[in-house]
Amino acid sequence: MTLLSVDHLCVRYGAHEVLHDVSLSVERGEIVTIVGPNGSGKTTLLRAIVGAVAPYAGTLTRAAHLRLGYVPQRLHIAPTLPLTVERFLNLPKSAPKPQLQEALVRTKTTALAKSQISDLSGGQLQRVLLARALIVQPNILLLDEPTAGLDQPGAAEFYQLIDTLRRDTGCAVLMISHELHVVMAASDRVICLNGHVCCHGTPEHVSSAPEYRALFGTGTQGALALYRHEHDHSHSHTHSPHDHHHAHGHPIAQKEEAGL
Amino acid sequence: MFDDFMTRATVAGLGVAIAAAPLGSFVVWRRMAYFGDATAHAAILGVALALALEISVFAGALAVALAMALIVSGLSQRGYAMDTLLGVLAHSALAFGLVAVSFLAGVRLDLMAYLFGDILAVSRMDLAVIWGGGGLVAALIAWRWSPLLTATLNDDLAYASGINPKREQLVLTLCLAITVAVAIKVVGILLISALLIIPAAAARPFAKTPEGMAVIATGIGALSVILGLQGALILDTPAGPSIVCVAAICFALVSATRLLQRP
């Protein structure tokens, strides 16, 4: 059953077209990962799906009674705002006790319930955000770079948690990730985005696709692949959509990526 | 019971405090302090217009404050550099308002009353307007509390929960304009922001939840009104500024205590 489908979506910020003719769908229970360089429109795509940006053209279709859990890329709470984890989980609607307990237990955040959000570490906050997304008992989870800012064991643990959740509750997952080695291991399908869908399919298919290799280099087993792709190549849609070859052979790490 | 001018003043001050404290909490959380200033300063232009057109000062101030609040709110959603823009708008509005007032014969002497309030002169009619407006603001915020709070945390999180953050922003904008219009009589245009921000800031260290902060801020606001008025009576000081002084002293005491407690 298709939970969510995006058809020929275009999104513009002013005159700048961020997404062009993007189509994808998510089926029940599958893990789909979106990869792509910075500025490729990944976050914009998720924002369009939750309704935070209006499509310029194209349609977004949700299955009837779709319950959607969303984990934003980051949550910055002003230090002037006192907020406990428990209160946060009850926003905007107060959550039924059993659902609340289950979300806390699944994300191992029960001990944090009385903590102030501002006192949490990056990994704890990420699990609390996930807990809040679970309150509605979602049949699809949207995660925007859920492990950004976590160290490698922390990230591995988080993906393990996602996998367990999918297995236990059967919810589908649509996530953005930069960690290609994890993506390849943990996803059913991968969508390579760069303003448009460059290529998509099983991890094996995508990692061997020339479009993907042009963006991320040839090595997919290591995170180093990430450092190899040419970052600032323009992707003009007036050219052939798969014209990435000029991006080959740039072994120099981009400065901002080296800090990842 | 409203025969005594002190009673009327106290009741008027409390009417503003119940609106200003919870609204002020949102102003603090959303970093809208300058936004409050711009809206309040625009109100002097509204006062001038109301006097010129011989309509109610409350209505004139409300209309112009609302117009300014909508402009600022619209610009903020377009991503302008807000601190500069608000600085420009807040002070230009005040300057134009003061110039406009100077064209009106006879009003110049009353200017101080609009800038710093004239709480000891509130009439029964003023009381009705203040409690009507203050009550409306408190009720609006109570009604929209959860969506407002969600939208304050994160726009995208709000959208994902089916809340439109722009609509919630509009609610706050409307509340701000009403609060400004009813508070002119009490603390005056220049000190309205103080009544929004200081009680909320003083309440922050005591609060564990947003609701707690709004309630404590209301308490501090009410206390400031009562003590400020009594102080003004005893020391023969201007009433509006005295109220703000008490709130500021509360804030200073709270902050000092916090500093001393820190290991």
What does this structure look like?
- The complex is a heterodimer of chains A (260) and B (263).
- The model of chain A is unreliable at 220-260 (pLDDT under 50).
- Chain A has helices at residues 42-50, 85-89, 97-106, 122-134, 152-169, 180-186, 203-208, 210-216, 224-228, 255-258, and strands spanning 2-13, 16-27, 31-35, 57-62, 68-71, 140-144, 172-176, 189-193, 197-201.
- In chain A, helix 5 links the parallel strand 6 and strand 7 (172-176).
- Chain A has 260 residues and is α/β, with parallel strands linked by helices.
- Chain A starts with a strand and ends with a helix.
- A six-stranded mixed β-sheet of chain A has the order 5-6-7-3-8-9, with helices on both faces.
- Chain B has 263 residues and is an all-alpha fold.
- Chain B is built from twelve helices and no strands.
- In chain B, helix 1 (5-29) runs antiparallel to helix 11 and helix 2 runs antiparallel to helix 10 (192-203).
- The relative contact order of chain B is 0.17.
- The A-B interface holds A 47, 50-52, 68, 70, 72, 75-78, 80-84, 87-88, 91-93, 116, 142 and B 28-31, 146-147, 149-150, 152-163, 200-201, 204, 207-210, 212-213.
Radius of gyration of chain B: 18 Å
The count of helical stretches of chain B stands at 12
Largest sheet descriptor of chain B: none
Q: What is the helix fraction of residues of chain A, given as a range?
A: 25-40%
Largest beta sheet of chain A, briefly? 6 strands, mixed
Overall SS class of chain A: alpha/beta
The tally of helices of chain A reads 10
The H/E string of chain A reads EEEHEEHHHEHEHEEHHHH
Name the strands of the widest sheet of chain A in spatial order: 5-6-7-3-8-9
Mass-distribution shape of chain B: globular
Q: Quote the distance from N terminus to C terminus of chain B.
A: 50 Å
Please count the beta strands of chain A (DSSP E, at least 2 residues each): 9
Give the fraction of residues assigned to helices of chain B: over 70%
| Distance between the ends of chain A | 37 Å
**Beta-strand residue percentage of chain A:** 15-25%
Radius of gyration of chain A: 19 Å
Q: Which pair of protein chains has the largest interface, and what are the residue counts?
A: A-B, 23 and 29 residues
Q: How confident is the prediction overall: mean pLDDT of chain A?
A: 82
